[in-house]
Amino acid sequence: MQILIVGVSTRAIAESAVSSRSGVITLDYFGDRDQSALVENYSLLRDFKLPFSAKALLQASRQLKFDAVVYISNLENHPAVVKKLAQGRVLLGNSEAVLRQVRDWRALRQCCGAEKILCPVTLLPGEESKADPAVGWLHKPIFSGGGRGIKYWNGQPIDGPHILQAHVEGRSASMAFAADGQRSVIIGLTEQIIGRKELGAKGFRWCGNILPLKLDASKKDAFIGAIEKIAARLTHRFGLCGVNGADLVITEGPDGEPCPFLVEVNPRYSASMELVERAYGLNVFSAHLDALGGRLPDFSLAEHLEGHYLGKGIVFARKTVTMPETKNWGKRGRRDIPCPGERIEAGHPICTVLAEGEERETCLNNLLASAETVRWETEYERGELI
Questions:
Q1: Residue at 151 is within a domain
Q2: Domain that holds residue 371
Q3: Mean pLDDT throughout 255-279?
Q4: I need a labelling partner for 364 at 20 to 30 A (CA). Which of 139, 209, 211, 215 fits?
C-alpha cells in the first residue's frame, strides 16, 4: 500500500515512516534537501511552483499515485480538504467529522465544561462584552497554528475568523498521546519554546520543544494523572484516533501543585513527537497506524520524565538570506535543510537544529548556540550582521 504523507512540512514524520515501512511518499511545501534524500518527496515550492495552501496540497496530490493518506499540520483546519484527499483512498487519521468537532472552539469549550477540563476562558465573535477588563485577553486566529497571529487584545470588536482567550500565565507545554477512539496513552510531554529572539521568533510564535518537561519529582505523579485524564476525556468525547497532540499552559494551583490548562487540541502528528521518537525509541508512525487499528503502545510516561534532555529549535531568518552549501548540515545536528543557493525570506524558517544535555538549561543553551552558528553561516558577513 502506497501511503501519502501530506502537510506543510513532512520531514520529521517521513523519518519515522521510512524507518518503519516502505511504500511512503511525501508532499509538502518546502521539499527540504534532507527529506528528498530520504524519501520520494514532492514540493509545492519546487515541483509545482505553488504557494502554500491546503487547496494547493489537494491540487498537487491529484497528480500523485497513492492508496492511503496521512495528513499533518495544518490540514486539521481544513476538514473539507481532508475529505477530498481521502476520496477513494484509506484515511489514516482522524475523520473529517472529528476534525469539525475538535477544531471547533464552541464544541471544545462545551467539552471542557462538561468534562471538567481546565481551559482558559474562550469567547467567540459577538461575545466581547463578556471579557472581564481585569483579565488580559489574547486575540487568536480560529485556524491557529504555531502561535502565528496571536496578539494581545486591544478591546476592539473581534475582526474576521478570530476568538478571544484569557491569557493564563505559566509554562507552555505539549502533550503527545496515542488513541484508539475510546482509550489513550500519553507518549510524551515537552516544554514549548515560545518567542525566543535567539531563534528569530517573537511574541507567541512557537519555535521548538525540550523533552522531557522538567517537573518536581514529588509532584510528578499527580501531574501525570491530571494530563492522563485530559487525554482520556478528549479521546472519549471526540473519538480521537492515531497520534494526537495538545497544547497546555501549566500554572501553580492553590495547593502548590502544577495545574494544566488545555489551550488547544492538535488531532494529528505534531512537531514534539520527533523528540519522543529520538528519546524513547518509540516509532511514532508505527504507533499511529497501530492506534488506528485499536492497538495502543505499552508505554509509561512516569518512567520517562527524568534524565537526559533533548531539544529541537526552528531557526527563523531575521533577514532575507541566500543559502550557502548545506551538504554537511545533517552531520551537524540540523534538519529541514535547505538547498544551496535557496533564497529564504525574513521571518521564514532556515532549518531545524537539534541539541541535548544532562540538564534542561544545558540543553537549551546548546540549542541556542547551534542556532547562532547557523546564523553566522547564513546572515553574518565579515563578523557583522547586515
A1: yes
A2: 310-385
A3: 95
A4: 139
